[in-house]
Amino acid sequence: MPAAIQPPTLKGKPIVGNLREFRRDPLNFLTRIARQHGDVILFYLGPRQIYLVNHPDYIRDVLVTHSRNFIKSRGLQMAKRFLGEGLLTSEGELHLRQRRLAQPAFHRQRINAYAQSMVACSAKAGERWRDGETLDVAQEMMRLTLAIVGKTLFDADVESEAKEIGESLTSIMQLFDRITKPFPEILNRLPLPSNFRFRRANRRLDETIYRIINERRRSGEDRGDLLSMLLMATDIEGDGKGMTDRQLRDEAMTIFLAGHETTANALAWTWYLLSQHPQVEARLHAEIDETLEGRLPAADDFARLKYTEMVLAESMRLYPPAWAMGRQVIEDYPIDRYIVPSGTIILMSPYVMHRDERYYPDPFKFDPERWTEEARMMRPKFSYFPFGGGPRVCIGEQFAWMEGVLALATLVQKWRLHLAPDQQVKPKPLITLRPMGGIMMTTERREPTVNIQQPIISQAAANQSNNPLM
């Protein structure tokens, strides 16, 4: 057993520790201390000890090798207020049972069947745009991914409710700023305006989800969507029962967050990065035009749109939707020469890890070439983990890759977006990494160019899977 010595420790203020620095700019704070102090750093948020780990081996051990010694941290415990006991927040045997019930809904063949809806929703979104108009691409992508999740999960049109649902999710997200404040449990019980907004938002989302669940139970139809799969699922390894309405609600709410919020943010950041890197944008246009030849993409095109996937992967490297992941230690846990006490939080940040120059030379540069097969093989797996890892890896990972690539290809085929002048784009780290204040962009219609003579990527590379986590 390693000696019980303390890792590099940040000196903080009495009582509050490093809380003020962290709250002022958590992304810069975590990046700075990782660069200055190494791969294991101890700091304090009030009286709470936080161990930041920033090495692929340590991250792998927490998420995969020793995953049974951890539970989700305070942030996701707090998320139970609106997610309930969904896949993101549940623990132990309950989590394993839910994962068994939900897994068939994310089978590769099912996901391929959703491709048509993903493309149709994306094409419809592009049809609303007008040449030369200025729009908030963050809101546009939220509306698009909500339509996709509504269609694939519920076979329902919830796009007409997009504004209200988006406002409700924003009210819920903003409450997560409270996680790092002293005594959040007490604040949650006080008659504060933010608590009233949270309860209204939660009720609004519940109304939509329970209405659709009830309608589907009455109809008894199998529409081939995720909700049908979840309704039909039975726990053959457990009690042989299916999901209750409350379980269905919790899983649906979780998918609303994971399948709507996160993918929307990834796409919004991708549009922003493309607008700042015309050479990358031109190569993306060339691949899409050559591959699709003017038609809409289909499920089979996903494997052929290699550079499109590389662009999305690089966007999620720089702006991972889940910017930090925490785990609470069950029993004293050794990392390197140190012992992390039980009850302590271990924090892992994709945002910090993805910008580590040991694995990403010139880390702030937007360079999709980092995601060629050869480049990926040179890096350890957990130098990139936007979807987590291990038994709690995001169940919708393949869904998200399919959705992101096909939605981007559909819209880029017809449109370019230019950043509006005099705009400073900054990330806002809530539970996901949103762009602060949105991203205002001006639309420019483009016509696809067909019959490109030069291949975009070698045939050998085209035959390789480019999923960065495979």
Kindly describe this structure:
By secondary structure, this protein is α+β, with helices and mostly antiparallel strands. The protein has one domain (19-462): Cytochrome P450 (Cytochrome p450), CATH 1.10.630.10. It is built from 18 helices and twelve strands. Strands 1-2-8-5-3 form a five-stranded mixed sheet. A three-stranded antiparallel sheet has the order 4-12-9. A hairpin with a 2-residue loop joins strand 6 and strand 7.
How much is the radius of gyration in Å? 22 Å
Contiguous uncertain segments of 5+ residues: 452-470
Q: What is the CATH architecture term?
A: Orthogonal Bundle
How many DSSP-defined strands?
12
From the spread of the alpha carbons, the general shape counts as globular
Question: How much β-strand is present in the residues?
Answer: 5-15%
Largest sheet, in brief, is: 5 strands, mixed
Task: Record the SSE blueprint.
Elements: H1 19-24, H2 26-37, E1 40-45, E2 48-53, H3 56-65, E3 70-72, H4 74-83, H5 92-102, H6 108-128, E4 134-136, H7 137-154, H8 162-174, H9 184-189, H10 193-219, H11 226-232, H12 245-276, H13 278-292, H14 306-318, E5 325-329, E6 333-335, E7 338-340, E8 345-348, H15 350-353, H16 373-377, H17 397-412, E9 415-419, E10 427-429, E11 433-435, E12 440-445, H18 459-462
Parallel strand pairs: 2-8
Antiparallel strand pairs: 1-2, 3-5, 4-12, 5-8, 6-7, 9-12, 10-11
